[in-house]
Each structure stands twice: as structure tokens, then as C-alpha cells.
Amino acid sequence: MATTTRQVPMEILALGMSRTGTESIKVALERLGYGPVYHSCALNPKKDRPLWEALIARKFPADKPTATSSPLTEDSTITREDFDQILGHVRAVTEMPCAAFWAELMTAYPDAKILLVERDIDQWYRSFVRTTLCLIFAWRKDVFAAAARVGLLPSSLAGMYSALFQGYFRAPTKFEMLTNLRAVYVEHNAAILKRAESEGRDILRMDISEGWAPLCRFLKKDVPEGVPFPVENTGDQTLALCNQMRAMTMTKLIGRIGRIGLILGSVCVSSWYGWFLWRS
């Protein structure tokens, strides 16, 4: 849902990197009364994608070498008005693409609490490579994007996320991303912590394995009685969902190409038969 005005206050910026438990945090925050929470799983492809693509192009322009840019650099031209068009209806945000705009979001919403979920760097690296890296550089992504451009498939988010991750990790190639992942992950967390502390902002650093206690203490909420802390979007779940979606998309694409082939074949046969009758 896109809006041009803020309908509810922005209360929490959960700015941890992808694969640190962002969907679990979304569910937890909504359970504590901070819904709706904006997460990539709630992103509206038709309404939100063009707005995010414009912001990504401004922060990571194609003509700017990604090797020399930094995710720590704030784009001062990106304002609260830009974000409110996409996020005006939510009380909290988590996951990419929001995490890549952490500096701009902290400026746009100075009263929001900051939540930084961290994860052991080696565990994070393995999870990111297994579930996300393979999607960013997948050959199917380019096929689906080309099919979307000619109207064979609906617009895909894959191209948007590829541009985002390649820009944020300063990595136009898979090799460069593998090289940069750990360093950018450390930079991301350290920069958010440093800025929050320098501005006197309320910030909580936590690991998802700590459960409800630190989060509820930070937000001054009671721990939900008898409710286990959510565990969402595990590596296996992510891979299974991605494989299912790719298979469905490929099946749809093949079916549409087949129908087009059938129509073209029928037209050719009809044209030939008409020509044959005319010659006779």
C-alpha cells in the first residue's frame, strides 16, 4: 500500500541485515502491538517496486563504480517524504530494502527506536550465500526479467533486489560479493551502533536466539505468556519457497510461450492454406 502521508507514527527501525532473523522480528513486533511491520514479504510489487527502484537508483547509481561507493554514505536527497510514500501506513520496518537505507531512515524518523539484530558472522555468511547469493546471480532472474519486459510474465522483484544487493555490497559480480560480504556486514552493524550512540538514540542489540526477554525489556512490554518466540523463514524454508516460486514461474512462462507458438502456428497454417486456395 503506497501513501503520500504518514497515517501512524514510525516507532521502530529494525535495521539488521538480511538473514539475521528479520521475519521472526516482524512477527514478534506485530505480536507486541507494533503492526503492521514492513518486510520484504509484505512488499507490494505493483505499487512499491517502482518507488524502491527509484530510491535504489538514486543511492546506487549505475554510473557510479560500486567498488568505490560505501553503504555508510547517506544520500541526503532521500527524505521522509520519499519513505512515507511507501511506509506511511506502518509502525516499524525490517529487512531489505529498508536495511540498505538505514542512514536515511534514521534521519527521516529521529524519534524511532533502533533495533539491531545481529548473528554470528560465520553463520550469517553461510546462510546468506546459501539462500540469497544464489538468487542475486541466478540465470533464471535474467530470463524472467526479459519475459516481464515483453509482457510474458508479471513484473519481477528479482531485478530490483539484485541491483540493491549489488549496490550495497559494492559487488557487481559474484566473486566480488563473496569477497565483500563479511566486511560490509561488519561495517553495517558498526555504523548503525555508532550513529545511534552518537545521537543518544534508544538502541537494542540482540541475537534472535535470546527470544522475548531483551526485546520486551527494551520496549517495556510484557513477555507474551505461553507464546514461543517466532522462528520464521529458516534457510530450508527459504530455499523450498524460492524453488517452488521459480518452478511455478518457469511453468507459467513455458505455458505462455507454448500458447504463443500454437497461435503463431495456426496463423501460419491458415495463411498457407489461404495462399494454396488462392493459387488453385
From TrEMBL:
<dbReference type="InterPro" id="IPR027417">
    <property type="entry name" value="P-loop_NTPase"/>
</dbReference>
<dbReference type="Pfam" id="PF17784">
    <property type="entry name" value="Sulfotransfer_4"/>
</dbReference>
<keyword id="KW-1133">Transmembrane helix</keyword>
<keyword id="KW-0472">Membrane</keyword>
<dbReference type="InterPro" id="IPR040632">
    <property type="entry name" value="Sulfotransfer_4"/>
</dbReference>
<keyword id="KW-0812">Transmembrane</keyword>
<feature type="transmembrane region" description="Helical">
    <location>
        <begin position="253"/>
        <end position="275"/>
    </location>
</feature>
<protein>
    <recommendedName>
        <fullName>NAD dependent epimerase/dehydratase</fullName>
    </recommendedName>
</protein>
